[in-house]
Amino acid sequence: MKHLLPILTMLLLSAAALHAQEPDRPNILWIVSEDNTTLLGCYGDKFATTPNLDQLATQGVLYKNAFATAPVCAPSRCTLITGMYPPSLGTQHMRSTYPVPDFVTFFPKYLRDAGYYTTNNAKKDYNTTDQPDAWNESSTKATYRNRKPGQPFFAVFNLNVSHESSIHTSVPDAELKHAPEKVPLPPYHPDTPEMRHDWAQYYDKVEEMDRQAGALLKELEEQGLAENTIVFYYADNGGILGRSKRFMYESGLHIPLIIRVPDRYRALAGGAPGTVTDRIVTFLDFAPTLLSITGLNIPAYMQGKAFLGNKKEPERTYAYGFRGRMDERTDLSRSVRDKKFRYIRNYLPQKIYGQPLEYLWKAPSIPSWEAAYKAGRLNEVQRRFWEEKPAEELFDVEKDPHNIHNLATEPKYRAELLRLRKANHDYLLETRDAGFIPEPLLSDIAGSVPVYDYAKSGRYNYARVIETAEMASLRDKTKFPEIRRRLEDKDPMVRYWAVIGTIVLKKYAAPARQSLETLLDDSDISVRIAAAESLLNLGETTRPVSVLSAALKSPNLMARVYALDVLENIGPKATPAFENARTLLRENSKEADYDVRAAKKLLQSAGK
Predict the structure, then answer these.
(1) Where do transmembrane segments lie in this chain (predicted)?
(2) How far apart are CA 512 and CA 283, in angstroms?
């Protein structure tokens, strides 16, 4: 036994040495504010009152080019939690909750399995089926303080005080800290009392958000954890006033991001304290970055690039963004951003920017903007929100931070337009973007198989579908002969986009009338609804409205939403569909359902 002691001692010493060489794991604190772009003092906004985040910026690295993938919360949060691009998963539409493949794991679960105590306080809104086992705690009381002694933590605190809902109820002017008359209005907003008030109240809410962030940072200090904790502060999307949240401009996609790394983990940092980096990062990169800085493996399915830690990758060239259905209104846009330009591709350009959304219209500033438009009191820049979109938009974000000077048709910028157009097209193909599947069909697919798996199976002819969508949305009359041929394609998705092409071209598509009438009996309801809209544009009423009215009885929720979207735009012609709309309301009392919202708006608009 005696001769074994040296061996045992050597083994124990070796184990201790190995343990001592293991790097200690940092705690991670995420402070997430809702619905605010870079309206902070540290980002140069002189009207903002944000002393705590301004101080955090002096202690960490401020990211000049950080972007949400979507300009609204749920699809953005899907990106954050999965590390995947929602259009590749079929989860790009607002609160669609379509399932993802089994292999897609909410990334905090990897941290939890590695010994981290994971907490979420408290918003989830991941736009897909929840995975509760990602968290040790997820509630309004969740806190890292409940972990075991010495256990590393990953803690998320969501600050909702700056959320869009915070301006739905107006505070009296006398109670505001930021004076409405001093608010710097962006050039696309009209100078109405309601607009000034909403902006001032919003700045007050951002100030309160900053105070709450400061309290979390103070608590970290008081717990003696600041020197062991990497702090991320960011917003979940831009916002909140009209043309920011939900829209593809800088105001909707450009987010603040500050990361403070303690001295002991300086090797993991993206720069020295108090510096600014122009590295492009997106929400797609957050999950792999968290795994990188905690020393964990990054799953191959994740589509982002780690921008910190031991697995840091070369900088990305572009930030990609997307817009799908927003609540009860359908739309489809994609965006590409480099360090100088933002490119936006609108695939449903016939739809105006300012489609009426029940939730958006709760802010007093929006009805005031609409009223000013109807009264003819807006300038050209302010009117655009209420008019159809161009197929392509291109902005020099350095010279034009408000994105009001569209350079897409200027010869001087032709090379940039073509470069970014190609970057967008290539990414659509690379990700097999499922946003081009009309949602009534998409929802049916998701009922039997995750959309990601469907797209990978070969059943989604994404290249031809996307090619048709690009052709259809350009307003290019020379493309009409091919669009007309594709009305008879065997693929319903191709037929759908060919019909969209006739809607975009309006009266010019009249020679396709007979084919469109045939498509009123198409096997796919999305095609039938689109054909009805096109024929309404060409002056027909009876059969198209009958098709739309029948769609209101469909068991497919999104088919009902699609049909209501068309009916609302045709005024009194929709009268034969009113009884089915009333029946829908009687049989469905869920106020949050998007078909209910759209049916209510249809009947209210008609005075019914």
Answers:
(1) none
(2) 43
